Sequence to fold (184 residues):
Amino acid sequence: DPYAQLLLEAMKQSGCTVFNDRHFSCENCDGCVSGGFDSATSQIVLCQNNIRQQSHMNRVVTHELIHAFDHCRAHVDWFKNVKHLACSEIRAANLSGDCTLMNEIARFKFGLKGHHQTCVRDRAIRSILAVRKVSKETAEKAVDEVFDACFNDLEPFGRIPHSKTDAKRAYRDFQNRDRYNANL
Fold:
């Protein structure tokens, strides 16, 4: 998957190498949660009982790898600073493919103007509420306060990948980034 390849390579370049047998865990999970990132162990949990299709698993892996990338590159205070969590959830919803047109159509959510941003905002709030015991108002306020900066933070993709083709282009650009910068 080009999304995962790009994130794994970016993490490696940031000094956080990921080992499949150490940093990924398949488990049965409660409710309808598909996955999670455990910052204490730097481990991505995939909920094997709630993931039924390869495309869904790819999105979950990408979403959680974005959290792992944020954990690697920034000093994220996952538990005490809801704005940090909100920022990573915004980035994950924006960059993982969670809000692609096809996924939104499958959810029976249609819209044209500003729909991607609305989807990212709603999914970030939903994710915060799923992992923290905070009020909906607290989650909304945190997302609103950091939305613009975090929505526009496209690292390591450099663009919002709306499809696998976009993700492949972003991966190719990422691989050539050092060669380009060396010529400046």
About this structure: The beta strands are 24-27, 35-38, 43-47.
